[in-house]
Every structure is written in structure tokens, then in C-alpha cells.
Amino acid sequence: MTDPVLEIDNLRVRFDTPDGTVDAVRGVSLTVAPGETVAVVGESGSGKSQVMMAAMGLLAANGKASGSVRYRGEEILNLPPDRLNRIRGRKITMIFQEPMTSLDPLYTIEDQLAEPLRVHGGLSPRAARARALELLDLVQIPDPARRLRAYPHELSGGQRQRVMIAMALANDPDLLIADEPTTALDVTIQAEILRLLAELQARLGMSILFITHDLGIVRAFADRVYVMRAGLVEEQGPTRRIFEAPEKPYTRMLLDAEPEGEKPPVAADAPVLLQGAGLRVTFGKPPGFLRRDTRFTAVKGIDLTLRQGQTIGVVGESGSGKSTLGRALLQLLPAEGRVVYLGQEIAGLDRAAMRPHRKGLQMVFQDPYGSLSPRMTVTEIITEGLLVHEPGLSRRDRAERAAQALTDVGLDASMRNRFPHEFSGGQRQRIAIARAVVLRPRVIVLDEPTSALDRSVQKQVIDLLRRLQAEHALSYIFISHDLAVVRAMADYVMVMKDGAVVEQGPTRAIFEAPGAEYTRALMRAAFDLGDLLTG
Amino acid sequence: MTDTAAPGRSLWATALLRLRRNRAAMASLVILALIACLAIFGPRLAPHGYAEVYPEFVKVAPSLRPYPQEDQVIPAAERALKRARVELGEITIDNGTVRIPLTSPREIDPRLARYLDRSDVFTEARIVDLSPDGKSAVAEARVQQLYFLMGTDANGRDLLSRILISLRISLTIGLLATAVALTIGVVYGATAGFLGGRIDNLMMRVVDILYSLPFVFFVILLVVFFGRNVVLMFIAVGAVEWLDMARIVRGQTLSLRRREFVQAAEAMGVSGGAIIRRHIIPNTLGTVIIYMTLLIPKVILLESFLSFLGLGVQEPLTSLGVLIAEGAKNMRNAPYMLIYPAATMTVLLFALNFLGDGLRDALDPKDR
Description:
The complex is a heterodimer of chains A (535) and B (368).
Chain A: E1 6-17, E2 20-32, E3 37-41, H1 48-55, E4 63-71, E5 74-75, H2 81-84, E6 92-95, H3 109-119, H4 125-138, H5 144-148, H6 157-169, E7 175-179, H7 187-204, E8 207-212, H8 215-221, E9 224-229, E10 232-238, H9 239-244, H10 249-256, E11 272-283, E12 296-307, E13 311-316, H11 322-329, E14 336-341, E15 344-345, H12 351-358, E16 361-364, H13 378-389, H14 395-408, H15 425-437, E17 443-447, H16 455-472, E18 475-480, H17 483-489, E19 492-497, E20 500-506, H18 507-512, H19 517-527, H20 529-534
Parallel strand pairs in A: 3-8, 3-9, 6-7, 7-8, 13-18, 13-19, 16-17, 17-18
Antiparallel strand pairs in A: 1-2, 1-4, 4-5, 9-10, 11-12, 11-14, 14-15, 19-20
Helix pairs in contact in A: 3-4, 4-6, 6-7, 7-19, 13-14, 13-15, 14-15, 15-16
Chain B: H1 11-20, H2 23-45, H3 70-81, E1 87-88, E2 92-94, E3 97-103, H4 113-118, E4 122-128, E5 136-143, H5 159-195, H6 197-211, H7 215-226, H8 230-257, H9 260-267, H10 272-309, H11 320-329, H12 336-363
Antiparallel strand pairs in B: 1-3, 2-3, 3-5, 4-5
């Protein structure tokens, strides 16, 4: 084997925090050979990003790295910045997860792309511009000459990530480190970006070190895999071997975390709980004095019927209006159209008139970190709804109901006096579910309840939701961009795009024979990533 | 239900732990506690009343030795007895008692001792050894032992006592005006931010209008109408400072309102008032507390500024600002009159600012 491009040997990273030292990385060794694609995969908190940050000298001020990181035999760990910069940003470059924040909003794409070429590459302004154009062309941005003059906010997320890749490629690097570069993107765009990376690698012959939590990407994309857990490499080997014959139970658990099963459809004569007709949601204001028309229709006339025990999966990419639809159904947003709950018209009711219905219509949000008030204890959070809907309960009764709800969602009731920040993401989502369930609702709108969670935790939450549905005869509206989860959870699917329903029907029918072109594209990007990259 | 539920560590508790590790902030906290004790108990324990005037000791320099000092006793006795129209013999001082032989062509009235008593320098004056013809006598009096550790001011009042009372006034104004600003600002800001839309617009325009009032004119106007008193100071300062607080809280509320836990509460049917009370205000408190520790010194400075202009508290009460203003007038011949109040003020402001800084680090949500 040829000499490795990057060799990391027994790397340790330690953070000094006010609450004690934290060992984020506890002796990790890995190598990247020229032209190879290596994936580092792990759940959140496994230290996979910190390995790269340490190698690139990008640790936070309270972090300390020890061990060895060699680029073509040269030690680069803890080098002073001026010497490190001869390699960092030239021979080894990085792209990050957040294309929204990695570009400076105050400068045009040309400024940001050409500046390093002129300063580091010593190119004249004209030559730098030509090279910038060439780079944008390389990353397949349509109409690159016009994009050069654009500001970051004028580009979409996928285009921004392409610009980031162009910047990373500017100096012909030997190694590209990609830290979750597609996590913030929609699946179809993710597939495009991955395909672009694969093509560029074939053309330019660089190595790629790919950090991700998504095993689907790893399988389609990487030659070799390192599985990380709690700051250590749990298992490593060629991708094929890892996926076909994992040695460690942890790896097997990760591979098995793919959501499974499906939900049988409900009887056609099951009672209708919630019905929406011609739902329209418009944001912004009509044109007026000194004001442009800022109106934007997020949901364009949608009909929906939810029966007892049913789970409707609402699928779509970001901006498709699926979350807005969920909020409009619960009257959390002003919407046009009719909403009927248990035979009663609830559209347009004011706060007070809506209150009695709220008990039966609950919601669980995407971000388990944002949806729990940080200054309240778990009991206070869970029982807040009881204060409104069952004001007769005594304090003790409420605490008892909270404890019961916690047990219901698989948490230890002795944790009820803790605060949200003392729980992990999955536990927080369970608390959020407990808060909805404690009111004994009929319908729960689940707005991407598993998107912010690790795959293994995701599976547990899905199992929990299924169990609760069976035990309490709940009906769900399950909003998600993740087709695998929707396939496992829902018995009816609505595919949304640009505020309208593209296709709908029973889950099995849709997944087996998608009718609309858009649905097919979504499914290809979600399930056949490997074919998409090679084909 | 188990009764073994362990209490969690709230964000407040965590912040307190973090604050404890900040030495500068903890030192400031101790200093502030000390200053607060001085402000509360100091005036009672001080050797002199803050309004007590010692005409004999105008602008005496700070000293660890008691006043009158030795060379002052004889001139003081001569000055005191000048109007008694008696001849003074050789004055002797012995062990804190002064003996003054007196002779007079007329009979000496024993009540003459009062001349001595009237002076700040002597007590327990009496006439002893009155000769049978009544024309010569010896006046005896104890020499006072007065300590002026920080000297006296231009009216002969003890500066230490005045600094202690001024601390009390300044801290009271600081705390009360801040409390006024806090209450109005938080409620107003949270309401405006939570209701949003047209009401928010209207409420914030009111704030803008109040902002545009020149503060000093506003105070002068109040003084003209209501006369000068301390309560007015609270109102004037509080009425201006809540504007900043309202803006800060409104901004916080606007961003909190979009947080999912507020939406979750709305989805549960929690009323607007309860959302503000349970979700919005507790989550703005971190910022508010930080702002408050910075507001207290600001208010104290503002009060000093007003007092410096002569619009503040009234004699014989005093505040740090008044003392500094007086000190500035006497800077040349009695620099200590400026140095001590200014030093006190500096220590107080430093401690408050360091504490505010420490709180900001401790409560910073970035760590979470």
C-alpha cells in the first residue's frame, strides 16, 4: 500500500469545562490512503467531529489534543497556525454541515471564492475570477457567471454547499474532510451533492474523509469505515465487510436501527376524528401604502381526513408546507378553509373557544431541545396542560398523573423533578410525548418527532409511539421528511411539494408503485442512493 | 408513586455553582455584602451623627489620633473664654483635663463654665478653687476625645458618618429605582413582545416618545412641580430607566415566542397571561438579572449626577454624588473630602460591575 495521506495515531482530545474535564476522544487511530474514501460513522457525542477538529487545529479554546496527526509523514498536530496553514486549507480542506452559516453573508460569492486565490495562490484579480468561474463550473452550479455576483442568501442550501465545495477544491487538495456535509439538506439534494463529490473524486483523485451519522450514505459512498462510539473506534474495515458481517454488537445495533415494520390500514368505516377541507395558509401582507405584496401561500388548498386509529404520514422536503399544514389543523396559525373535529367546526375559533378542544388535539415538535421550557421541572412541564384542562386536580393528583405519564413513555418516574437539560435528546422527546399523552388526547400531530435524534434512539421513539397508539387508541398525523420512518409508521401517506399534495394513498400502494415523478425521485434518493451514485 | 424523586439541578443552581467558581465575582459579592451592612448598620454605629456640626473642627484632616490635638487645646480654651472677660493664667493640661487659672476684677460667676462647655473641645467644665473674694478661680474641664478618621467637611461634620449615610441613600435609590425599572420594564416588554402586531407597535412607539424626552429637563420639571425629595428621585430615575429594560425584554420575548416550548404551551391551550408568567418571564430573567447588576451602578451614577447638579437629595441627608460634588469644590485645600467618597463610590461600582460580569458568564445560555 502507498503511503497514507493522513495518519492519525492515538489521538486524544480533552475539554476543560467549568463542570470538570470531558474526554471527548480517547485514543483514536485511523489512516487515509491516497484516492480513498473513508467514512467515520457514529452517533452524536461519539467524538467523530472532534477528531477532525483536533487534526485541523480547530478545537475550541478549552480543548487540548495529544497524540499524533501526520500529513504525508509530517506531524501537524498542535502546529502554530502559520505553519499549519501551509497544509490546512491547501492540501487538506474541509466542508461543514451548515451551508447557511459557513459563508459570510456580507460578501459576494466571487469575493469569498477569489480572495483566497489571490492571497494564497498569488493570482491576479482577473486570473482569480477566471479560476472562480471554473470552480463554480466544476461543482455544476447553473449559470456560474451570474452566481459569482450573488450573495449567500440568494442561493439555496444545496447551492451554498456547492460553493463550499468549490472553495475547498480551490487549491487542489489531497484530502477533503467533509463533516456531515449533507445533513442539513433535503434527500434529493443530498443525493446530488454526494454524486458531485463522487464525480469530483474520480476526476481529481483526492482522498475524502467523510464524517456522518447516516449509514445509508456510508454504504453507498465509502471504501472503508470506522465506527466510533464514546470517543473510541469500535470497529473498522472495508464497507462491504462491515455491512455484511459486523463483528461488534454496537455496529450490529446501528445497522439494525433502520425502522422496520408497517402499519395495517384502519377499517374504512372507522369514525372520522379530524377533517380538513380546502386548507389554505397565507403568510405576509397584501400590498398597501409603500409596501410590496409580501404574500406567500404555504399551503394551497388541502383536504385531509383522519380516522380513529389512523396514522397519516405527511412527507415532503423543507419548504413544502407540511409543518404549516399540521399547525393549521390545530388552529395554531390563521388559515382559510374548514376544520371539523368530532363533528364540530373548529376553524376560526378564538383562543378561549378553542381551549376545550385543545385537550384532544395535541402536538409533538421536532426539536426536543427547544420544545421544553428550560427553567421548568419535568413535572411542571408535563402537568401544565392539566392546569388548563383539569383545574380540579390537586397538586398531588397532578404529580401522580405526571409520574404515570413518565412511566408510560418508558422513563423512570423518579426523574420527575429534574430539568430538561439533564436529559438526552431521546429522553427529552419522550418527555414531550408524555406532555401530550398526559391529557389523554384523541389526535396527536407529530412534527418531525424523530428527525433530531440518532438512528438507534429514533427506533425506540417509533416503537414507543406505536405502543402508545395501540394502548390509547390514538390517531397520528406524522409529519416527516424521512421516508423510511413514514413507511414504518403510517398507513396512509400524503406527499407534499410547494404547498400542494402531489400524491396520496395507502402507504403500501405508494411505496410499491409511486405514481408521481416527484415521489419516485424522493424514493430513489432515500432508498437507492448507491445506484444513484454509480448510475 | 415513589417518593424518592431526586430533585434536579436547575439552570439557576448550575449558574450559581459557576458563579461560585468566579473569584472576582465572589469577592465582589463579599464586598457588596459588607457595603450593604455598612449602609444598614453603619450610621447607627458611627461615633458621630451625620448631621452633627462641630464648629471647632471645620475641615480637619483625617487622623487616627483624637481631636482636639494638643496644640489646639490652649487656643481653643482662649477662644472659648474670650467673651467671658476674665484674665487667663497659664493653662495646663494634665491627663485629659485642662486647668485654667482665672482672675477678674469682678466676681467670677460659676456659670462661666458654660463658655467652655459650649465649645466642641471641652466637656464637664466646672469652676473649682473659687477664692473667697470670688475674683480668682480655676476652671477645670475634660478635653474631648473626638475621632475623625476621615476628617470633617466644610461644615465641621464627620466625613465617615456622612459617607455611611450617603451609602445608605445611594444604595436605596439604586435598588428602588432599579426595582421600579425592572417591574415596569419586564411586564411592559413581555406584554408588548408577546402580543405583537399592532399593540406591540403602539406600545413601543410610546417608549420611543418617552426616550426622546431630555432627562435633565424632565427632572427639573418634576422638581419644579413637586419640590425636591428623595422619593421623586426614585420616580424620575425609574421612569427613565425602564425604557431600556422594556426594549431588552421585548426583544427576548420576540425570540422566545418563536421557540417551540411556547408553541407547545399554546397547543395545550394555556392562556396568554400564563404563558408570559410561566414561560416567557422566567426565561428572560437571566438577561434581566445581568442588566440589573449593570443598571444599579448606572442609577447610582445618575443620582450622583443629579445631586452634583443640585437636583438630588436635600441637606442634611446626603448621597455619594453630593459628597463628591462638595469634595470637588474643596479639592485644593482638603483633598480627602474628594478622595474618600470617590474611593467608596469606585469600590461600590467596581464590585457591582464585576458581579454583573460574573453573572453574565454564569447565566450565559451559550454553554447549554
